[in-house]
Design goal:
The chain is of the alpha+beta class and 578 residues long. It has 13 helices and 30 strands. Helices cover 20% and strands 30% of the residues.
């Protein structure tokens, strides 16, 4: 399900008055429809907090803040209850947050000793704070992060344990089937060709299309095929949220006729086949005009079956590691690194496009890799001392051990390489793809998944070999992200992406779509806000990874490993106050 996700903010505007906006119906594509994030529940415990009370122990509360992407401003997200007289609180009140793999969500947990009933935090004693990302919590073993509390110089402030649990409703799918009776006849010569369109309601009262059935030709009493949809897509896990269903008569020219509509909710549908799930189809226009109007037919729910899906987070929680490798284009077409016009120009005041793409993607993926050691490769350069051309060299100069520590280590190796290799050519991708594929081929048990980020300025020289490498790699636990920097035409990259036409080599088609390409220029923020550019880039290139990951696991029949047993803190009988 994850691969379909888009930010919950990007929604189609709602329609008022039941008047059909035909473009949204005709153009609906299930693969690009927005699905809200999955939700995770965060539980917070602390050990050995500072004692600020003279005659008793502290009365702690935890306050969670999230950070806005653009201006870096911290906003309060929520507060736990206060627990009286303890330095080892296990807070009962949880934080429920939307979770997107492709977004970096910075979090700050502040702790206070509450001294009065005042909601103003400055009136209470500060006990310290902890910074992390949501990905760091989810990516920790068993989705349990333990970190020191900091913020008071010279004092040991204790530790905080944050555990993330995916909410069950986000993992359910439903298999539903509908039929209709006595729908209005819309076609002059035959009967109607009906289909259903499902919309979930948004917080602001607008509606977002989430499913469209097939068309059943020439009948006023259609029986549609059963279809499967995630509960997140249908109602964002809110069982009482309105679901609007519209009935249309299909027309070849796309100007489908509106027959009528009805509303329901997940809770109503979950009663299954019953008198409660027979719905009158109402056409508001007709109802307003005709006094004797009853309805435009009825729609009946025939079956409703709930299935629980395994999710991306189940594998991460079970210990699957995501290994990140970066490959950087060192061909001469990038321009001389000492010149400001070069794509590799080392500006002391801001990152170049290569650095931005690397940081944007790497800083998110590194949360899912426990050792934070990343192989960093270059291609298309002449290497010292003899000037031989290499399409697979270690940026740190050590071919036996190309690993760099963290994204900072990769950046350091990249800058170092620029000073000692000569940019050359041609632009060959196959060697670095095969490099990662060799590692991926050695661990096919689901314990590791490999993501290769290729950053390039352009036209590929070994298209046939690259296609063959991608087709071979599509059988392995790996995904490839290609970020194109600079002004070149990237037509060949679109072909590698395989979203429109599945990539093939010598008559063999890729087993799954594993390549995601984006041109960096589409993300340059006109206001010069590079933080926003990087966040948007990461969002788009990483959004497909969880679905590509799940498609590999499903094809291979690999189930997630059981998560380590949950952390059970020692029991304290404590007074709590809300």
């Amino acid at each position: 399900m994850f691969g379909l996700e888009k930010p919950a903010g990007q929604r189609e505007p709602g329609r008022s008055g039941g008047l059909p906006k035909m473009a949204s119906v005709g153009d609906f594509n299930v693969l690009s429809s927005s699905i809200p994030a999955t939700k995770v529940e965060l539980s917070v415990s602390c050990r050995n907090l500072l004692d600020r009370d003279t005659f008793s122990k502290s009365d702690p509360i935890c306050v969670l803040y999230t950070q806005a992407i653009g201006n870096k401003e911290w906003r309060e997200f929520g507060r736990t209850e206060v627990i009286d007289n303890t330095l080892n609180p296990d807070f009962v009140r949880k934080f429920i947050m939307d979770y997107f793999f492709e977004e970096r969500e910075n979090l700050r947990f502040d702790f206070y000793d509450v001294d009065s009933k005042s909601p103003n935090l400055s009136k209470h004693d500060f006990l310290g704070q902890m910074f992390c990302t949501l990905g760091e919590i989810v990516g920790s073993q068993g989705s349990r992060l333990e970190k020191s509390i900091v913020g008071i110089p010279g004092k040991k402030c204790g530790t905080v344990i944050v555990t993330a649990e995916e909410l069950g409703c986000c993992r359910d799918s439903v298999l539903m089937q509908f039929c209709a009776n006595k729908l209005d006849k819309k076609d002059f010569f035959g009967k109607s060709d009906p289909f259903l369109v499902f919309h979930r309601s948004n917080e602001d009262g607008s509606f977002t299309i989430c499913h469209k059935t097939e068309v059943v030709k020439n009948t006023l009493n259609p029986v549609w095929q059963a279809f499967k949809i995630s509960v997140r897509a249908l109602c964002n896990g809110d069982y009482d949220r309105t679901i609007k269903v519209e009935v249309y008569d299909w027309d070849r020219d796309g100007s489908h006729d509106f027959i009528g509509e009805f509303t329901t909710s997940y809770r109503e549908l979950s009663r299954g086949q019953s008198q409660f799930n027979v719905y009158e189809v109402i056409n508001p226009k007709k109802k307003g005009k005709k006094k004797k109007y009853v309805n435009s037919g009825t729609v009946t729910l025939l079956s409703f079956l709930i299935e629980t899906e395994v999710s991306f987070l189940d594998y991460i929680k079970g210990g699957t590691q995501i290994n990140f490798t970066v490959a950087i284009d060192f061909t001469a077409s990038n321009g001389n690194p000492s010149q400001p016009t070069s794509l590799h120009y080392m500006n002391p005041y801001q990152l170049n496009a290569y650095g931005m793409a690397l940081r944007a993607v790497g800083e998110i993926i590194q949360d899912y890799d426990s050792d934070k050691m990343f192989p960093a490769l270059g291609f298309g350069a002449r290497l010292p001392p003899d000037g031989r051309v290499s399409h697979e060299f270690a940026l740190n100069g050590n071919p036996q051990n190309p690993y760099c520590h963290g994204i900072d280590g990769v950046m350091e190796a990249y800058y170092k390489s620029l000073k000692c290799v000569q940019l050359y050519g041609p632009t060959n991708f196959a060697p670095v793809i095969n490099h990662v594929a060799r590692y991926a081929a050695s661990v096919k048990d689901g314990s590791q998944y490999f993501v290769l980020l290729i950053i390039t300025d352009g036209v590929i020289s070994d298209m046939a070999q690259t296609k063959e490498s991608i087709v071979n790699a599509s059988k392995l636990p790996m995904s490839i992200i290609i970020v194109g920097v600079g002004p070149a035409e990237f037509d060949a990259m679109e072909e590698l992406d395989g979203d429109v036409v599945r990539i093939s080599s010598r008559g063999r088609f890729a087993e799954r779509d594993i390549v995601q390409f984006v041109p960096f220029r589409d993300y340059i923020d006109r206001s010069g806000n590079h933080v926003l550019s990087m966040a948007r880039l990461a969002k788009d290139v990483l959004a497909e990874i969880p679905e590509q990951f799940l498609s590999y696991m499903r094809v291979r029949g690999i189930k997630p490993s059981p998560a380590p047993p949950p952390y059970t803190p020692p029991v304290h009988v404590l007074q709590t106050r809300i």
